């Protein structure tokens, strides 16, 4: 018969109640986890103080006011001192005489998961026997005295052994504390689960990697902590780890829309160690870099062909123009010549489109109000729609400025709307929706009431030159939207709904720096550049304080808590870099980075994951473009 968790808890409670000593276990937050009946009976405590979750300080306050510790002049101070001692989690043993004349021993020891266990023993009878033996020592025989001396020597040996054990325990506790501190400082979730899938260790970082999940998870089953959807994603890899195979899994968490990488390492007891990291920004940067490399390769391949094709078109246009100028050209021939000229000019337009696809399209994000994107889009799209077609635009995004290349975004959305128009014909409904997904993506969806994508279009719609419009289409519009999206680290998805086509465009959500004219910390080791950038910041209304290294900047941040923003070079003198400064402070102080490194540099890409990056040289307008304009700042 398999014992349930409730039955196991009941059996454990019954066993603890049979122990003669009183016992309590408190967690790291000084909340009661478990106690036995002798504990309540020994101190005559009310039920609410022996209920799991009861605060330690409430119990001490209750006992002090009832006289358990004798006269106490300042109860509040007494409770505070006892609580501070408890938080230290140090092993201890003590004996004290209670107000009722009974003597008890109190022995406490910290637990590996945090918190501590304490055992209380009534030693009144033992103390009385010791006093009786001492009083009658003169009447004891030499044999008894010798035996007593032997016992005393043994006790001294035991005391020395206990001291050694306590020192060993202290060292182990200190080592464990250092290990726990190290794991808690890492930007990842480190945990261990037993063979049944229950957490036995966690560095309390689960919620930082999987937003919305709990942090205190020791004892929980992994499926409960992660949720059904995420657990189903990692379950095969976890099963492999239980079978002794190290595995690596990367997936998108449905709840938070974050990209997660999880490594599983088996232990020797059938369980597994788990390392989870949020790689969303890394993935976005990697996707953007891959798209840039694809475009560079395409540009190299196409440039030569485009050059030769352009020369051929030039010859064709010249020859047809000469034919038109010949005397007595039949009207039928003129019609053919004009058709040839039109086709050649269309070929020239197509070459320009190819150049747009393969040429450099540098992303220039600026602080942009999401509502302004939709306002401009409606102004541009409405005149291009027939009278029988309705355009509905819904804005569900917060009114906070974000960093976007507004021109590229508007061009992409306009392209999607015009595609939807062509699919619907003369009448129909087009709906554009804008929203922010879990502070990870800013998302636009374009839906229409047309016939939807064909199976071939769903498969090849983003391929260059693929079109369903025949000779009317160049097949580059959706491909250019895809290119822009991927170059920015985003994603583009096509699907069909019950009523038509559905296109989802996602870009990384990066909030712009808030509008401010407060104190700015400028970190730059080149004096001339520092003077130039200082003038730019002052022109924007900032007061400026300067540092030449990350360590100097850290000291200033500690002394000056009112700094409104930081602008730091990535490469600085000393061992620490601007990236180190951003990692320490980006969550509490708005941060900008600057560099002269190329966009494909590892440091440049790492910087983009932490904060907006300005490429040197830049102007005051370039700097201002990354900061929320005052008239767009949220009150």
TrEMBL record:
Source species: Sulfitobacter pacificus
Coiled coil regions in record: 151-178
UniProt entry keywords in alphabetical sequence: Coiled coil, Kinase, Phosphoprotein, Transferase
4-aspartylphosphate modification, residue list: 569
Domain Histidine kinase residues, every copy: 304-511
SUPFAM superfamilies, per database record: ATPase domain of HSP90 chaperone/DNA topoisomerase II/histidine kinase, CheY-like, PYP-like sensor domain (PAS domain)
Catalyzed chemical reaction(s): ATP + protein L-histidine = ADP + protein N-phospho-L-histidine
A GO term for molecular function: kinase activity
InterPro entries in alphabetical order: CheY-like_superfamily, HATPase_C_sf, HATPase_dom, His_kinase_dom, PAS-like_dom_sf, Sig_transdc_His_kin-like_C, Sig_transdc_resp-reg_receiver
Domain Response regulatory span(s) in chain numbering: 519-631
Keyword Transferase appears in the UniProt entry: yes
Gene3D superfamilies: 3.40.50.2300, Histidine kinase-like ATPase, C-terminal domain, PAS domain
Top EC class for this record: transferase
Source organism superkingdom: Bacteria
Name under which the protein is recorded: histidine kinase
